[in-house]
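Bit of a strange request maybe. I'm writing a small parser for structure token strings and I need a real example to test against, not something I typed by hand. Could someone generate the tokens for this chain?
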Amino acid sequence: MADDTADETTQDGSSTGARQAARDARRANRLAKEIGAFAKAHGGAEGHIAHLGQRGARIVLVGADGGWGDLVAPTHAIAEQAVTRAGLTVHETFDGELAGRVRTGRYEWSRMAGIQVGGPSND
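Reply from user aminoacidic:
Good idea to test on real output. This should exercise your parser:
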């Protein structure tokens, strides 16, 4: 009986597993570059990886200056590879210490208030 976990071989002799691994490595490298650019623009950065279910994982970035952003990776493993390659300090949880560093602006407060009952609309 054949092993169902073995990689399939394509007509050009490469395995589908090897091709997927190479694709994942390229995705991780791209994310790592974006993380590095964010860190450079914000005087350093720390982050947290949040599970998004089937959609993958969100890498939440918090800059030393309070700026913040996020990136989405197709899998948690790719997100972990990206933060490792970027040298990002990753927190297990997005706790009060990390969240307290985030500086929001007028836009974010307007958006959050619009979600609340009676808040301004964002139309």
